[in-house]
Amino acid sequence: MEEKETNEQIEETKVSEEITAETTEAAAEKPAKAPKAKKEEAVEEVTKAEAKEVAADVAKEVLTDNEAAMAEAVVPSPQVSSSEAEVASAEIEAEEIAEAADTEEEVEAAAPRGERSPRGRKERGGKKRKVETTEAPVSEWKEVVVQIRRVTKVVKGGKKLSFRAIVVVGNQKGQVGVGCAKAAEVIIAIQKAVADGRKNLINVPVFKTTIPHPITGRSGAGSVMLRPASQGTGVIAGGAVRAVLELAGIENILSKSLGSKSPLNAAGATINALKSLKPFKTVAKKRGITLTQMFN
After folding, report:
1. Neighbours of 244 (CB within 10 A)
2. What is the per-residue pLDDT for 70?
3. In what order do the strands lie in the sheet with 202-203?
4. Residue bearing the bigger pLDDT, 165 or 11
5. pLDDT above 50 for 149
6. Nearest CA-CA partner of 209 in 170, 171, 253, 145
7. Which of 105, 138, 181, 198 could form a disulfide with 192 if both were Cys (CB 3.0 to 4.6 A apart)?
8. Helix, coil or strand: residue 217
9. pLDDT tens digits for 72-127?
C-alpha cells in the first residue's frame, strides 16, 4: 500500500511538474507574442495616418485646381471703396462742367454780338446746353471787291483818314449793280458798298450768253466799248469791266476800256452801257414790225 501511495505521489508530482512547465512555457510565449502584436498595431496605425495625409494632400490639390479654373473663368471685379467712388464721380462732374463751359464760350464767340447770351448765367443743374448748328442758306448774290483805297479829307485841325470801297454785286442772271462807300474801317466800308450796290441794281438783256448789239458807255472821263461775240469767245475784258460783265451773267463778249483808267469810272461806264441796251422785242414793238421782219 505504501508503494502505491508513493507511486501516486510520484505521478502527482510529475503531473504538477508538467503543468508548471506548461504554464511557464505559456507565460514565456505570451510576452513574446504581445510585443509582436503591439508592433503590428503600431504599423497599422502609421499606415492609416499616412493614408489619411495622402488623401488630404490629394483633396487639397483638387481644390486648388478647381479654384484656379474658377478664377480663370470668372475674374472678380475690383472692390472700390466708397470714398474712391465719390472722388471719381466728382472728377467726372468737374470735367463735364468744364467741357460745357468751353462749348458755351465757342458758341458765344462764333455768334454775332446781338445774339450772344449774357455772361454769368448758367443753366440749372449744370447740364450741357444743346447746340444746334444750322447751315446758313446759300445766297445767289455774289460780291466782288474791285478796289479798296485810303482817302483823306482835309478838315479844320488836320486830315480825316477813311477807306473807300468799290464793290460789284450780281446774281449772274441778268441783275448787276456797283456800290461805292467810305468808312473809318475797311469791313464797314465794304458792307456799306454792298448795300449801295444792291440799291442800284439794273436788269441786263442777255441774248444767247452775249449782248444783243454793240454799244458804248460813258462815266466821267472814261468810256467802255462793248461788242457781242460768238459762242466760245469768253469774256474779253479786265479789271472792273470784267467783274461787272461776269456778275451780269454774260459769258461771251468783246470790250475795250477807253479814256480814264480809274476802276470807278470803268465800272460806271460799263453799267451805263449795259443799262442802255435794248432787247429785240422792244425795238420791234417800237417800229411796229415783227421779229422775223426785223431780222430779215
Report:
1. 29
2. 58
3. 142-155, 158-170, 175-183, 202-203
4. 165
5. yes
6. 253
7. 181
8. strand
9. 544 444 444 555 666 677 777 777 777 777 766 665 665 555 555 555 554 455 55
Residue where the block lists cell 466708397? 82
Burial profile 81-109: b = 16 or more Cβ within 10 angstroms, e = fewer: eeeeeeeeeeeeeeeeeeebeeebeebee
Overall pTM surpassing 0.85 (yes/no): no
Helices (H), the chain: 2-73, 82-110, 186-199, 239-248, 263-275, 280-287, 291-295
Q: How much is the CA Rg of the chain, to the nearest whole Å?
A: 60
Place of cell 511557464: 24
DSSP code string of 135-182: PPPPPS-EEEEEEEEEEEEEETTEEEEEEEEEEEEE-SSSEEEEEEEE
